[in-house]
Amino acid sequence: MPLACANVRTSEMEVRLPVLLPYRLAHPYDYVATPDASLCPGDYVRVPLGRREAIGVVWDEGKPPPHNAGIRLKAIVEAMPAPRMPEVLRRFVEWVAAYTMTPMGLVLRMTMNIPEALVAPKLAEGLRLSQESLAGPEGLSPKRKQLVDFLVDSGNAPRMKAALARASGVTPAVIEGARKAGLLETVALPPPPFVQPDTERQAPELSPPQQSAADALKLAITEGGFQPSLLDGVTGSGKTEVYFEAIAHALRLGRQVLVLLPEIALGIQWLMRFEERFGTRPAVWHSELGRAERRRNWRAVAEGEARIVVGARSALFLPFPELGLIVVDEEHDASYKQEEGVIYQARDMAIVRAKLGEFPIVLASATPSLETMRNAEGGRYAHLHLPDRHAGADLPTVRLIDLRKDPPPRGRWLSPTLRAALEQTLKAGEQTMLFLNRRGYAPLTLCRNCGHRFRCPACTAWLVEHRQAGHLLCHHCGFSEPEPAACPACGAEGRLVPCGPGVERLAEEARADFPEARIAIMTSDTIGTAGAAADLVHRMQAGEIDLLVGTQVMAKGYHFPKLTLVGVVDADLGLAGGDLRAGERCYQMLHQVAGRAGREAQPGTAYLQTYLPETPVMQALAQGRRDAFLEAEARSREAEAMPPFGRLAALIVSGVDETAVARYAQRLRQTAPEEKAARVLGPAPAPLAMLRGKHRVRLLVKTGPDTLLQKTLHGWLEASPPPNGVKLQVDIDPYSFL
Ligand code: ADP
Ligand code: ZN
Fold first, then answer.
1. Lower Cβ count inside 10 Å, N or C end of the chain?
2. Domain interval for residue 220
3. pLDDT tens digits, 523-539
């Protein structure tokens, strides 16, 4: 229950309190509370809203109600029995809302989208022997006697009905009967407490560079205050071990810790390592979590019971009362950008959160983003280096295969060189990873008779054949149809051909060439559940798989000791499209993939099949010249005043009615601010000109680095709101150029 706070009024007067509600609202609404309600900023309260009630947060200090009696404010109904929202989280919500140009209520919603966490937990019911029956009553039926004996023998610890039935070997009906007869009583079962991480467990001995990086982080934590660090180390250099030391230190000092990971698939090995180091698992937070666990974890964070949380980007909005360290692992990863709902960059917002909370933050990567590198070089972030792989393992050798000179045979995808390397690796009993960032069997299906191509009815996209599942699938909207036997356009049978490879087709080619090899496919389709992902990782670790064929889900973070060969089937794939960061992202992705090879004793090799061996990206990869590559990227962005040398926002106009969309986009263009303030490019159809049945047009707004981009946009967009049926989305610092 809320305690009284400093501003509680003792006078008779009612208090006027601003309450922010988790809806599309730009500001809090005022409500009144009686003076004895003792409400404070941060309290969750139930208030009337229209004809319903809603739960919101008391946003700021109270004021006396207006003298003007004409205004009738509604009264707060009740305070919710939940820990107060910390002040710093309220300021963070305001900051994110202003920066992303999102109504504040929608940002608030991300912090409290688990309403049942705001009421006292409903405890499960446990059953145990009642006082009278502890002595062991006479004349019981054999089944009841079995039940009573079991409970007496096990110390009469209460259990839930199903668990009791299982443990004692009687049916739930027997238990129910015993309860009705008064043999058993019901007691509330509190959830098992969180096991706290043990910071004193044996940690590995750090190498001198690891130790000095860990010491720097620990010092920053001891000193407190905002202090961002870039932990810049090659793949396998022990970045995780180093930040584990920092985590242990922060936990010892009584701070809460948040670790952000790009994708939860990465979490399996990570969680196992964490458990090895700290003797327990951390609280986790991601979108797949079940409601009960969400509720429990949210509450445990708010109450300070959960000291460490590992999560996806949304974990940033949890109500930590004592957050004192954030680690953003793989900080360059594009999945930190949320593209739907509130559009935000979680790594950037994590920096803001640390600044508002005045504590250190660690960004870890082997391939830091250009933005982060600039901050490190400019001295705004501490730059900690781990130059070598742990225990003297070498970085993999990267070789380019020029597909113009060394092409695969017709209808196949592995060049002779890569195929020979694969054969050799299999013979040596080592593991191989073939990387192709394309799910399914083939990215396009074509009728050889009439040229018909299968496209999604709702998107500007081809349908991807998924042969194992037996359907054609749109990767953008999920539309699917069964694999057709005949062409729907000309009716010809047996004339449909797959064009291009997906991972299924690649695995098929490998199976045909190496029938003895144990081959597995790793994509978001095959590791859809955490269990399936863990199983695949275990089999790979145990050496039960010789060849893993997969997409980017297998590129990140994994450590497989016997993996020595990585083959990238189409290294150019990431370079297509007009994405500002295409080169940088392609570099990061391929470097990560290559970095899976040779992480222990045996050295690794990565082959990149490419038609563009002379491009800077491929050259940098082959020569291991990361910093020179980033430098060149930086220069070309500087020349065009693109981020981080200028600021960028995308305005995406979408709607079912193509003309209305085009007309509104034109109007935006015409009402755009003067060239001095901002350069507006477009409108142009987005590359995915249609998505889920909606037409999409995009404008790009570019300003200088010191312009208040949001302010410029605000006045302009306020004056030209979209008509009904047309949607305008603002994407500050856009990443996706789909
Ligand atoms: P990164 O996060 O930089 O990719 P990791 O922390 O995963 O690197 O380290 C790679 C491997 O080396 C892991 O298996 C890790 O346990 C091991 N390792 C790193 N540093 C040490 C150390 N000081 N002592 C023992 N093992 C270490
Ligand atoms: Zn589609």
1. N
2. 208-269+280-289+308-390
3. 888 777 777 888 888 99
